[in-house]
């Protein structure tokens, strides 16, 4: 076995080992059934990697738990840098973290241009290099651009400078342009990697799902959003197709998706909405379908760069599920209200 193969073998084994120590769906079910406090929940998940970490932290409130969950995810990313990791795998991890930089840039823009106060996410290069506080305090675009240039994120500066401060739609379109720019960067990087076709397909499925969430929300909310800006680079649905779907009613959308991999998804969203007339049916169903498709695509692979992407998606899902669960316990929300929002790994 050559050196590259040995490194892939080690990292694949490590990532699969970490996967076996994530919070299981059975544990989440037990938490929902038996827990009345966050401490109860922590004891149930105490034999997992994240459970061991959280049990050692001074968690009293949801804000404490929320902060520690983000710190944990950041530590998982940092831990990877300590290994002799294959370059492609390291690049996947770096690109994954950059999506939080893009999110923080969007948050900063809302603060500057829309005067909408919001909290930053403590992940990504801006966080690791200590510029997140400066980002949150920035009140001019020049300040934001200067920080991005310092952190080697100048790739996004031109898009920021093209946004019109006086036009609310321009700000929203600028945020979408930042996402599209990030997606282009990721997809270009994946094309040159080992098993890049799998990484590319997985990422494009995520783009399709994000666009379909927009389509479903608009349709169920009354429709009529032709020409609305959408994400580019999807897997099965082109921008032209998404634009067409934005003009249709839910029944027509379901029919239009019949020969794609999203027909059952559309049917379930429609039925879920009819049953409860809640727009949250869109997120509940779409997120579960997205995760299921990515699991089928990525999880069975071994000795592959895709092992890294699957690990990162799984850790992100774990944090998402626990944030929902801790919020339920902190606010006294009935478990039945979040049960359908938790996605089983």
List the helices and strands and how they pair.
Blueprint (H helix, E strand, L loop, with lengths): L2 H17 L5 H10 L3 H7 L4 H7 L6 H19 L6 H27 L11 H4 L3 H6 L3 H10 L6 H5 L6 H23 L5 H25 L18 H7 L4 H7 L6 H14 L4 H18 L7 H26 L3 H4 L7
Would you give an account of this structure?
It is built from 18 helices and no strands. It has helices spanning 3-19, 25-34, 38-44, 49-55, 62-80, 87-113, 125-128, 132-137, 141-150, 157-161, 168-190, 196-220, 239-245, 250-256, 263-276, 281-298, 306-331, 335-338. Helix 3 crosses helix 4 (49-55), helix 6 runs antiparallel to helix 11 (168-190) and helix 11 runs antiparallel to helix 12. The longest helix has 27 residues, at 87-113. The chain starts with a helix and ends in a 7-residue tail after the last helix. The relative contact order is 0.12.
Could you tell me the number of beta strands? 0
The rounded distance between the terminal residues' Cα atoms is: 33 Å
Largest sheet: none
Q: Tell me what portion of residues adopts beta-strand conformation.
A: under 5%
Q: What is the molecular shape? A: globular
Structural class: mainly alpha
Question: What is the overall number of helices?
Answer: 18
**Cα radius of gyration in angstroms:** 21 Å
Helix content: 55-70%
What tags apply to this protein structure?
single chain; about 350 residues; globular
Short description:
The protein is an all-alpha fold and 345 residues long. Helix content is 68%, strand content 0%. It has helices at 3-19, 25-34, 38-44, 49-55, 62-80, 87-113, 125-128, 132-137, 141-150, 157-161, 168-190, 196-220, 239-245, 250-256, 263-276, 281-298, 306-331, 335-338.
């Amino acid at each position: 076995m050559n050196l590259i193969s040995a490194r892939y073998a080690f990292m694949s084994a490590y990532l699969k080992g970490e996967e076996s120590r994530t919070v299981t769906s059975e544990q989440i079910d037990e938490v929902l059934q038996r827990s009345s406090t966050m401490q109860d929940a922590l004891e149930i998940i105490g034999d997992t990697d994240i459970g061991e970490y959280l049990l050692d932290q001074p968690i009293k409130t949801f804000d404490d738990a929320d902060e520690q969950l983000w710190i944990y995810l950041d530590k998982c990313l940092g831990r990877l840098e300590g290994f002799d990791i294959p370059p492609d795998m390291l690049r996947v991890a770096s690109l994954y973290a950059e999506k939080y930089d893009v999110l923080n840039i969007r948050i900063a823009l809302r603060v500057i241009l829309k005067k909408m106060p919001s909290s930053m996410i403590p992940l990504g290069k801006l966080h690791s290099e200590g510029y997140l506080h400066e980002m949150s305090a920035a009140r001019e675009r020049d300040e934001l651009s200067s920080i991005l240039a310092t952190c080697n994120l100048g790739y996004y500066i031109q898009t920021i400078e093209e946004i019109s401060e006086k036009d609310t739609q321009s700000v929203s379109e600028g945020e979408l342009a930042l996402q599209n720019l990030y997606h282009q960067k990721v997809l270009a990087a994946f094309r040159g990697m080992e098993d890049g076709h799998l990484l590319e397909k997985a990422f494009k499925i995520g783009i399709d799902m994000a666009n379909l969430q927009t389509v479903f929300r608009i349709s169920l909310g009354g429709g009529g959003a032709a020409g609305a800006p959408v994400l580019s680079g999807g897997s099965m649905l082109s921008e032209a197709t998404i634009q067409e779907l934005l003009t249709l009613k839910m029944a027509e959308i379901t029919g239009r998706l019949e020969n794609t991999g999203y027909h059952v998804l559309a049917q379930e969203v429609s039925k879920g909405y009819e049953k409860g007339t809640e727009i949250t049916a869109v997120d509940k169903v779409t997120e579960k379908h997205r995760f299921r498709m990515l699991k089928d695509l990525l999880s069975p692979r071994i000795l592959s760069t895709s092992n890294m992407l699957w690990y990162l998606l799984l850790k992100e899902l774990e944090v998402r599920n626990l944030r929902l669960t801790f919020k339920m316990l902190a606010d006294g929300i009935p478990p039945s209200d979040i049960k359908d929002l938790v996605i089983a790994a």
